[in-house]
């Protein structure tokens, strides 16, 4: 052996390498290995042998040389791992091998790499020294063009990936828990260094590894990578590539959860405690997991909680400047879900089904609920404000966006929406109708592919609630214009419904037929710009006449009209719907005028008295019907006259030029139109003249008439009274519009009003006696007319009209009536979103009327102060100015609710000498705020005798509404707060309602400017000073608004205390969640550092404790205020306990709560027990919460080794106490009972 080695050395020293190669070839593998092993301890000889073997004796170009080099690697790697070599010797060997690795051919590198993989999997890596060589081998392998793999070949790069994949599949490697955690952390850190396409295989191997443990760590790491890291790389990575990688990863995770339910439980558990960690990727993952049945309910409950919590957090943060400054902008879960919908376009079929389920889950869970007696509340959809409304809206948006981008789910979405419209008859379905309408507008042609589902829904129309039918037909109307089959199916259903035994079914038929008449124009009708409604779908540009000729349309419409005429013999509700719809039909289809007007004329003649000498001119008896003892309205006569008048006025105003320009061929038609118009005018003129002459006795409605709803005669008289009043109102509007500012016509109008007013007074007088209609019937005047009337009464200064208008202006009752009707119309608009009569459904025109009214009412209020109107005061009712002010308040409130984006436009419409900049909402709003501030200041400047409480309350309410338009960061907002604080400090009127309103305004402004805690402290100090101490009275006050003992104002202050506690509680909850998620970072935080949230909580609670310390020393009146304060104290101590348990607390804070507040609390408890004179749960609850706080302080003292209890003063009010008087009374009672029982005992013994 020694001789062989010496010969190798001597040959290496020579110049001929051929002899060395020949000699090495003659040796066997065992001999070569033995020669290396023989000289293991000799560092110099080993290095020499390795260099000679490589450089001289084993050229890589020769197969034998490659074989000897590979043999050396295979021998040296286990040798270095054995631990038998010294560290420096092993390092030298590895270094020499690394230098020559790149010379190895591909097959040798593949064998060498496999050697490493097998050693790692088999746990044969001892010291790990040779692992330094492994990356060099992989790098050299990746540079190879082709490597044999199985029966084929792979590139070096692909072969390397296969090795890494095999290596990562370490399920068979035995690992200790700490070793497993180390491996997982190492692999997760490598995510950022890998190519995007390498992530899914690595995720797959990690999930296989999760069977051994670290489930939460693996899932959190994968999700956090896609949440945080992708945001940095998204600019350089194509979107489709990124989304496909995310989709593949989601499939891997879902597959792993299907096989390992423990992994699924860990997955859901991690989200239940960290809603804030949601992201589009994790939401998509949750929705995919929801496809597993056992997790479906849990996932949707979790997402429901996350969505509601997100909206509540957003609402809380938006309503508090304190929270806005303290925390960053809220990250909306709703936006993440909608992003998930967008991302799902990239082949995420496993997510789309979950999105559909989530959308309907939100709509079903958070949709509107039935009102009283199961009826849906009337009104159109308004802006979603509450978290539940926003969640419902989100469900609709998810389904709408999903419908647009995913063809496979369109049929299911449409079917489920229509099914709910048909089946949910007991609850409102406005949200489903809105969704269906949005689907029709966004994708009408796509929807036509599923028209059979819509046709099936039509079959149920006669059985659905009327509101559902109206919404459904309005939503589907764009489809009717492009689908003949759909229109024919609807007509067939409506014809059947016309003969339905159910009233709602017949009303549904009328609704459908009117809709068809409005939307299928006959050629030759006037331009649609005069219509009161526009087609809801701007995407359907179809000329109906190119598909159906005008003759067919006209025949179709006339056929419908003939069907509708049958309704004139049905119930009043059906007739009413017809009268309310005819006007819109006429405006859309003016070619149908003759048929419509003839129908109305013939119907009106049934109730019109043609004999000119007879009074009254209308027959009321046919308008009612009786069934046994019950009396019902049969014909809504006033609405019939109203419909006739408005149709006639519209025809006369819109068609004079058209009539002049017609050809001779249309002369017969023109004569016919002129004939019925003339006849109608004659009838209306006659009705006006004779209604003026008619006395109430002619209608059997004088003061002696019975109006009690308990008898059939009283019901009949009530119906008659409402009909007559309605006819008077319609004739008032007709005569004003036709009067052309003639004094005589306006005098007739006033005569009509006087009759109306007299009847209204009788009804009002009788309303206090028995069961009578106490609510004023809804006025039949249209909103457009009321707007015009108010403008003429208060703002028209045209000299030619002065004489005629003076007739109307001279009547104070008529002025009050006009403004009162305006108030009624505005209220109806606020509640339902529309008004009665023409243009009532047209949002644009209605808003224009609102603007006109606002201008008039503002001018009337500012130019004629209420103090001038002594008559209104003497009659103990609101003056005209107060009615105008109430109208302004209702208009501002309605505009904020129904037209939130048009507030500046509304204010700009109020003409004034100084016109502000219309482009700046804050500027124009503050301009009018100053006017109302001056009016309120004028009220407060006078004495208390001149103070008008109702006007002051209205002014404060208006200021409160307008202040919402100011930006909290603006200078005007600061000025508003300053002014409000000044008024609160200087106001001392004994009016609790006004004081409460003023305080509400102050608090609403304060929370948007800064924390109200400081203001609460000042207010509590003043309350204490004003109401006095429990045993002593103070008289120095700053806010004189508390001069009166206003319970409502005190409760308002306590409600603000509760609001501050809400914010503190919310912050502590967020801090708890943050601590749970960041335990590692918390460990590195030094004791001197204080989190900004902790600091803010400490300052808020510190100020609040000082404020409560003032209140518990105050001699509050027994009752609600005392109970509320006890509850707020209980909640305060509960929050203090939570603070002690989860957040650090300083000594000063403990001292403030323990030394100052707690003793005063026990004194207040004693005071409350003496004053309340009844048992209340608030007192024991408060004592329990104080004791819990002290308990956890003791625990914290032991942990921190700081005696925090030295600041707590224990009270004796919790101790067992003996009431001497009660004890004596009980003992005497016991003695007396024993004396009476003694004889009985003796008799028993005998």
TrEMBL record:
Q: Where is this region: Disordered?
A: 657-677
State the CDD domains in the record: FANCI
Residues forming the FANCI solenoid domain are 67-257, 351-514, 780-1002, 1016-1224
Q: Which InterPro entries match?
A: FANCI, FANCI_HD1, FANCI_HD2, FANCI_S1, FANCI_S1-cap, FANCI_S2, FANCI_S3, FANCI_S4
Listed GO biological process terms: DNA repair
Report domain FANCI solenoid 1 cap positions.
Answer: 5-34
Q: Name one Pfam family in it.
A: FANCI_S3
Extract one GO molecular function annotation from the record.
Answer: DNA polymerase binding
Which ranges are annotated Acidic residues under compositional bias?
Answer: 664-676
Q: Which residues form the FANCI helical domain?
A: 262-343, 528-764
- Would you tell me the protein name for this molecule? FA complementation group I
User: Mind giving the lineage of the organism this protein is from?
Assistant: Eukaryota, Metazoa, Chordata, Craniata, Vertebrata
């Amino acid at each position: 052996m020694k001789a062989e080695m010496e010969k190798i050395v001597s040959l290496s020293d020579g110049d001929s390498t051929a002899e060395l190669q020949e000699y090495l070839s003659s040796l066997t593998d065992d001999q070569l290995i033995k020669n290396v092993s023989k000289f293991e301890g000799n560092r110099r000889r080993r290095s020499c042998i390795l260099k000679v073997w490589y450089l001289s004796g084993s050229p890589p170009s020769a197969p034998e040389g490659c074989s000897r080099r590979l043999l050396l690697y295979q021998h040296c790697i286990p040798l270095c791992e054995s631990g038998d070599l010294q560290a420096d010797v092993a390092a030298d060997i590895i270094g020499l091998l690394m230098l020559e690795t790149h010379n190895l051919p591909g097959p040798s590198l593949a064998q060498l790499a496999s050697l490493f993989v097998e050693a790692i999997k088999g746990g044969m890596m001892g010291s790990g020294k040779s692992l330094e060589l492994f990356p060099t081998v992989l790098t050299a392998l990746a540079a190879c063009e082709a490597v044999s793999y199985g029966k084929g070949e792979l590139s070096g790069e692909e072969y390397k990936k296969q090795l890494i994949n095999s290596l990562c599949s370490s399920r068979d490697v035995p690992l200790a828990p700490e070793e497993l955690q180390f491996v997982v952390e190492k692999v997760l850190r490598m995510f950022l260094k890998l190519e995007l396409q390498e992530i899914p295989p690595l995720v797959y191997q990690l999930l296989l590894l999760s069977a051994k443990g670290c489930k939460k760590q693996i899932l959190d790491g994968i999700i956090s990578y896609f949440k945080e890291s992708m945001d940095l790389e998204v600019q350089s990575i194509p979107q489709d590539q990124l989304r496909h990688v995310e989709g593949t990863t989601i499939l891997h995770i879902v597959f792993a959860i299907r096989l390992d339910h423990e992994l699924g439980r860990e997955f859901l558990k991690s989200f239940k405690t960290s809603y804030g960690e949601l992201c589009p990727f994790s939401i998509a993952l949750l929705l995919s997991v929801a496809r597993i049945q056992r997790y479906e309910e849990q996932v949707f409950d979790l997402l429901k909680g996350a969505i509601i919590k997100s909206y509540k957090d957003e609402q809380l943060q938006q309503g508090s400047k304190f929270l806005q400054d303290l925390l960053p902008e809220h990250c909306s879960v709703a936006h993440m879900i909608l992003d998930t919908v967008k991302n799902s376009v990239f082949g995420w079929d496993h997510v789309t089904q979950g999105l559909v389920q989530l959308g309907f889950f939100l709509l079903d869970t958070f949709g509107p609920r039935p009102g009283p007696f199961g009826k849906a509340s009337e009104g159109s959809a308004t802006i979603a404000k509450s978290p539940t409304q926003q969640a419902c809206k989100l469900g609709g948006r998810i389904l709408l966006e999903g419908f647009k981008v995913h063809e496979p789910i369109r049929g299911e979405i449409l079917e489920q929406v229509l099914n709910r419209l048909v089946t949910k008859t007991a609850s409102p379905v406005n949200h489903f109708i809105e969704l269906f309408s949005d689907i029709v507008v966004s994708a009408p042609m796509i929807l036509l592919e599923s028209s059979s589902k819509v046709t099936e829904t039509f079959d149920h129309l006669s059985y659905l609630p009327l509101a559902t039918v109206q919404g459904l037909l309005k939503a589907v109307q764009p489809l009717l214009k492009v689908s003949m089959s759909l229109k024919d199916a609807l007509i067939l259903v409506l014809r059947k419904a016309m003969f339905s035994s159910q009233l709602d079914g017949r009303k549904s038929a009328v609704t459908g037929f009117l809709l068809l008449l409005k939307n299928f124009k006959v050629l030759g009708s006037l331009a649609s710009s005069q219509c009161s409604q526009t087609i809801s779908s701007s995407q359907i540009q179809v000329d109906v006449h190119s598909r159906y000729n005008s003759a067919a349309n006209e025949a179709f419409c006339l056929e419908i009209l003939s069907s509708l005429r049958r309704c004139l013999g049905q119930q009043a509700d059906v007739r009413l719907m017809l009268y309310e719809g005819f006007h819109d039909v006429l405006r859309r289809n003016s070619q149908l005028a003759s048929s419509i007007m003839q129908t109305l004329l013939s119907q009106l003649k049934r109730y019109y008295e043609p004999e000119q000498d007879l009074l009254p001119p209308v027959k009321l008896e046919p308008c009612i019907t009786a069934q046994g003892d019950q009396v019902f309205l049969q014909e809504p006569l006033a609405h019939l006259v109203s419909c006739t008048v408005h149709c006639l006025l519209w025809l006369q105003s819109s068609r004079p030029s058209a009539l002049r320009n017609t050809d001779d061929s249309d002369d017969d038609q023109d004569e016919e139109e002129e004939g019925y118009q003339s006849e109608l005018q004659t009838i209306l003129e006659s009705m006006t003249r004779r209604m003026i002459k008619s006395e109430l006795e002619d209608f059997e409605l004088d003061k002696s008439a019975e109006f009690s709803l308990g008898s059939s005669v009283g019901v009949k008289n009530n119906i008659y009274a409402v009909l007559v009043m309605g006819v008077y109102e319609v004739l008032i509007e007709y005569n004003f519009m036709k009067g052309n500012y003639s004094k005589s016509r306006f005098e007739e109008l006033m005569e009509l009003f006087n009759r109306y007013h007299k009847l209204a007074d009788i009804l009002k007088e009788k309303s206090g006696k028995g069961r009578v209609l106490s609510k004023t019937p809804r006025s039949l005047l249209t909103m457009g007319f009321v707007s015009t009337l108010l403008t003429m009464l208060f703002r028209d200064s045209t000299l030619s009209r002065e004489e005629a208008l003076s007739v109307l202006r001279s009547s104070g009752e008529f002025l009050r009536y006009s403004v009162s009707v305006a108030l009624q119309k505005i209220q109806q608009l606020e509640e339902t979103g529309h008004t009665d009569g023409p243009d009532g459904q047209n949002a644009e025109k209605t808003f224009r009327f609102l603007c006109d009214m606002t201008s008039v009412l503002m001018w009337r209020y500012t130019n004629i102060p209420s103090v001038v109107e002594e008559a209104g005061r003497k009659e103990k009712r609101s003056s005209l100015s107060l009615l105008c002010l109430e109208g302004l308040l209702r208009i501002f409130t309605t505009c904020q609710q129904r037209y939130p984006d048009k507030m500046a436009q509304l204010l700009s419409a109020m003409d004034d000498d100084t016109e502000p900049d219309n482009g700046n909402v804050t500027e124009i709003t503050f301009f009018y705020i100053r006017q109302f501030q001056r009016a309120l200041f004028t009220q407060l400047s006078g004495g208390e005798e001149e103070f008008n409480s109702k006007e002051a309350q209205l002014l404060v309410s208006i200021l409160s509404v307008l202040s919402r338009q100011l930006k909290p960061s603006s200078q005007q907002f600061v000025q508003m707060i300053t002014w409000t604080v000044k008024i609160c400090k200087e106001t001392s009127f004994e009016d609790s309602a006004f004081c409460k309103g003023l305080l509400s305004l102050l608090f609403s402004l304060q929370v948007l400017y800064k924390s109200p805690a400081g203001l609460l402290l000042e207010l509590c100090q003043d309350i204490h000073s004003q109401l006095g101490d429990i045993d002593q009275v103070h008289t120095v006050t700053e806010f004189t608004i508390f001069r009166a003992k206003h319970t409502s104002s005190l409760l308002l202050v306590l409600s603000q205390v509760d609001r501050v506690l809400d914010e503190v509680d919310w912050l502590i909850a967020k801090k708890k969640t943050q601590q749970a998620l960041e335990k590692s970072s918390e460990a590195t935080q030094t004791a001197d550092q204080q989190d900004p949230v902790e600091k803010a909580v400490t300052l808020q609670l510190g100020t609040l404790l000082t404020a409560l310390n003032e209140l518990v020393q105050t001699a509050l009146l027994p009752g609600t205020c005392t109970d509320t304060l006890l509850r707020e104290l209980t909640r305060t101590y509960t929050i203090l306990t939570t603070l002690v348990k989860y957040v650090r607390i300083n000594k000063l804070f403990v001292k403030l709560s323990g030394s100052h507040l707690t003793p005063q609390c026990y004194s207040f408890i004693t005071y409350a027990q003496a004053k309340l004179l009844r048992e209340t749960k608030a007192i024991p609850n408060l004592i329990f919460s104080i004791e819990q706080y002290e308990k956890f302080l003791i625990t914290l003292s032991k942990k921190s080794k700081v005696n925090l209890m030295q600041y707590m003063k224990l009270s004796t009010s919790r101790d067992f106490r003996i009431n001497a008087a009660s004890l004596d009374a009980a003992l005497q009672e016991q003695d007396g009972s024993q004396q009476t029982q003694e004889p009985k005992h003796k008799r028993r013994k005998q």
